[in-house]
Write a structure and sequence with these properties.
mainly beta, single chain, globular, 39% strand, Neuraminidase, 30 strands
Length: 411
């Protein structure tokens, strides 16, 4: 699939024009064009051809350089009956004309707003009929501009044209779904979703990226690496399991699908991001030195209190199969995202009271510097990264959700 002149961007789906963002990144690094000369990291190539990029703690951006996230659009309202009042935003997408698509899962609607924030139309509605939705979880644009809605409740994908008219339905062959939904379209217009299959441990199924043909027949799968952990199991008085969950501040596996044909993974207790092809070959490893962030006594107490509340909710006699093990330091990473050109936005752990921030890496893996949004960006729904903006959900002091567009201003 050739890259179209006005490629849509959607949650879980990123454009393939890597050179565009790469050029923007380098231009944003240094007005004198000497960014590469000032970068203090190293690049090595392993025997298998994988590139290892080791970054220093210091950013490449100087004091007068860097990016600023500037809010230039906000959609939402505290109360009322209009389309800008959101109950449960499950996914976001931006089409080729800059129109913002907001999936409200509770209303089972996709609300479309123009680049100026004015309501254009509403797609879908609750139900099981053609074009209706039930517990929808994701949005993705095909190369044609058609909008695919991942309709988990009806076990299907509902497809709408660029005018919002219902086109067709495809049966969703997967029973498993992940929230926020991380799939989308590859650059060749092949559709990718997430399922489960047999893993290295037969007792624990593994997550898979499943690539589908036009007929929605599976073409191949990519195993997502798993992280062996020892979860805590909450049991009822009769010993029956209720749920399992990890230790507070314990390491987790974070991963992202990259529509250029890659899978990115990171184990959060170390600052190392691994890029793999969908065939499983390691392409690039990006590392950075970063200081540890301590778990405070207050944070430890709060985590234990929340676990105690879970036990109490189950009822008398409920118990844990072991005591929680809380480390002295937090994982280095919280989560990360891949932008439209292959750059990385990594959210590191932060001390209590600190603002949210993102470490920015260019498409070559060089650490550029940090960006802090004015308001906390929610991780669910997943933010959308276009070449010049970030579309995300923020919440006010009353916990009311707003969809915001943050322009990326480059010094």
């Amino acid at each position: 699939m050739a890259y179209p002149p006005r490629r849509p961007y959607a949650a879980g789906m990123f454009a393939s024009r890597i050179t565009l963002i790469a050029a923007m990144v380098v231009a944003g690094c240094s007005p004198d064009g000497d960014a590469g000369d000032r970068w203090g990291g190293t690049v090595d190539t392993l025997d298998n051809g994988a590139v290892v990029v080791s970054n220093p703690a210091a950013p490449l951006w100087g004091d007068t350089e860097g990016w600023v996230l500037r809010e230039d659009l906000r959609i939402g309202a505290v109360e009322g009956t209009g389309p800008e009042v959101f109950a449960s935003v499950a996914a976001l997408a931006v089409d080729a004309r800059g129109r913002v698509h907001v999936l409200d899962a509770r209303a089972s609607e996709v609300r479309v707003f123009g680049p100026d924030g004015q309501h254009v139309r509403t797609i879908g509605g609750p139900g099981a009929g053609p074009g209706e939705l039930s517990r929808a979880i994701g949005l993705a644009f095909a190369n044609s501009g058609a909008l695919w809605v991942v309709d988990a409740g009806n076990a299907r994908y509902s497809v709408f044209d660029t005018a919002g008219a219902y086109m067709t339905t495809h049966r969703r062959p997967l029973g498993f779904f992940r929230i926020p939904w991380p799939g989308g379209f590859l650059a060749d217009d092949t559709f990718v979703d997430v399922g489960v299959g047999e893993g290295a441990d037969p007792r624990r199924p593994a997550e898979l990226l499943v690539r589908y043909a036009d007929t929605l027949e599976p073409l191949d799968t990519t195993h997502i690496p798993s992280l062996r952990t020892d979860p805590i199991t909450l049991r009822r008085a009769n010993g029956g399991p209720v749920m399992s969950f990890p230790d507070p501040y314990g390491p987790q596996l974070a991963w992202r699908f990259d529509a250029r044909g890659f899978l990115w993974t990171a184990v959060t207790d170390r600052y190392e991001l691994v890029q793999r092809s969908l065939k499983g070959d390691t392409v690039r490893i990006i590392r950075r030195a970063a200081p540890a962030v301590a778990v405070t006594a207050a944070e430890r107490a709060d985590a234990l209190e929340r676990i105690s509340e879970r036990v109490a909710e189950v009822g008398p006699g409920a118990s844990l199969d072991r005591d929680p093990r809380i480390p002295d330091v937090k994982p280095v990473l919280v989560r990360f995202y891949v932008d439209a050109g292959g750059g990385l936005w990594v959210e590191p752990s932060r001390a209590a009271g600190e603002r949210q921030r993102f470490d920015i890496f260019d498409a070559d893996g060089r650490y550029l510097g940090r960006v802090s949004p004015e308001h906390e960006i929610q991780s669910n729904p997943m933010p959308v990264f276009t070449p010049d903006a970030v579309l995300a959900v923020v919440r006010d002091s009353l916990d009311v959700p707003y969809v915001v567009r943050l322009r990326i201003e480059r010094n």
